[in-house]
Amino acid sequence: MIRVALIGYGQRGKFYLDAFSKYEDVKVVAVCDTDPEKIAIARKKFSLDENMCFSSDTQFFGSGKIADVLIIASMDQAHYAQAVKALKIGYHLVLEKPIAQSVAECREIADLAHKYNRQVYVCHVLRYAPLYTTIKKMIDDGKVGNVISISETEHVGWWHQAHSFVRGNWRKGGDTNPMIVAKCCHDLDLLVWLTGKKCKSVTSYGSLMYFKKENAPEGCADYCFECSYKDQCKYNAMKFYTEYPAFAFASGQYLGSPKDKQAIYNAFSKRANPYARCVFKCDNDVVDNQVVNALFEDGSTAQLTMTAFCEGGIRTIRVHGTEGEIEASMLDNIIHYQKFGKIYGVQPEEIKVTVEETFGGHGGGDEKMVDDIVHALRGDASAKGLTSIDKSIMSHLMGFAAEESRLEDGKPISI
């Protein structure tokens, strides 16, 4: 029996426990969260003993090793200290990204995993998403020849930016992580994993252009429910969270029924709710647009664009090789492949990638990652271990270097 404990019963933590608990040889034995309402929900759902429900990580770690694997799905700023304590106690880790808040902290966690012979899996779930696993196989099979350049666009979306990076927990880089790490270490990871190449240096530009006070409509209120623009503003909090109750729950400001729209409306009509604030009058400082250019050791290049100004929720990618090119989007999970020679009659191919219905997300990658981790924890030789910390750390090195470059007006930073 694999015993699983969790710190951080938020949106991601809830998914992980649901996913792990599907396996007959996995048992959820403990949950830690600072919110008593979330603890009550988890305790009832997983039939937990009262003494296995913790309101602080101090209490949790004070109980010693009470499980085999610990899922860390807390806020970014807690990852490092919790991971270090857990590894020293003897836990294997499923560590939500980002790994930590600096290069030194990331490296220390990796070093401790080796020192104590512990498995640490970073939640780079896109390595398991069928769209990207198909592209990876095509590249490895030589379909495009040698990859010369690869570009990825992270279409964050106006609504996601407002929810997470303007009003939400990731709005201040000093408190959590710079946005290029917090949101886009997935994308930087794909650039490395798909090509199989090592990054040599990066440059980056980006800024906070739109979500700031000088762009607020004249006379708008500090809170949506008090604002004369609320009926015409797409950022109206009461409307957004009522229509998308999953985000109301994710905010931590509402834990009731997702069907009770009036209750959600009421919850986001209070000054005490930070998610009710005007998006132009928050205390956010992370960028809403950024580009990263990467140089690999063999001279090939990669480029990442992160933007809030789109409908959002998708990623697009283009791979350019010596023998062909690939273009794909998570919007439709269709890969467009062209082997060079179209002018001589070589026809393009369209590959529709099947994504099974999933209660997780990330293009089907969530559940597939959990399944592989379970196999690895069992000791199965079939486990791929695609997101072990040694394989996942490069994206973080690139991300922190990109932020350093951005703050120094695009100065090249060696990895």
Descriptive overview:
- The model has no long low-confidence stretch (mean pLDDT 95).
- The chain starts with a strand and ends with a strand.
- It has 3 domains: 2-122, Rossmann fold; 126-211 and 284-367 and 379-414, 2-Layer Sandwich (Dihydrodipicolinate Reductase, domain 2); 217-276, no CATH class.
- It has helices spanning 11-20, 36-46, 57-62, 76-89, 103-115, 130-140, 158-166, 179-182, 185-195, 237-243, 245-250, 261-267, 365-378, 389-407, and strands at 2-7, 26-32, 53-54, 69-72, 92-95, 120-122, 147-155, 199-207, 289-296, 301-307, 314-321, 324-329, 334-339, 349-352, 413-414.
- The protein is an alpha/beta fold.
- The longest helix is centred in the C-terminal third of the chain and has 19 residues, at 389-407.
- Helix 4 (76-89) runs parallel beside helix 5 (103-115), helix 9 (185-195) packs across helix 14 and helix 10 packs antiparallel against helix 12 (261-267).
- Helix content is 34%, strand content 20%.
Task: Please outline the helices and strands.
Elements: E1 2-7, H1 11-20, E2 26-32, H2 36-46, E3 53-54, H3 57-62, E4 69-72, H4 76-89, E5 92-95, H5 103-115, E6 120-122, H6 130-140, E7 147-155, H7 158-166, H8 179-182, H9 185-195, E8 199-207, H10 237-243, H11 245-250, H12 261-267, E9 289-296, E10 301-307, E11 314-321, E12 324-329, E13 334-339, E14 349-352, H13 365-378, H14 389-407, E15 413-414
Parallel strand pairs: 1-2, 1-4, 2-3, 4-5, 5-6, 7-10
Antiparallel strand pairs: 7-11, 8-9, 8-15, 9-10, 11-12, 12-13, 13-14
Helix pairs in contact: 4-5, 5-14, 6-9, 9-14, 10-12
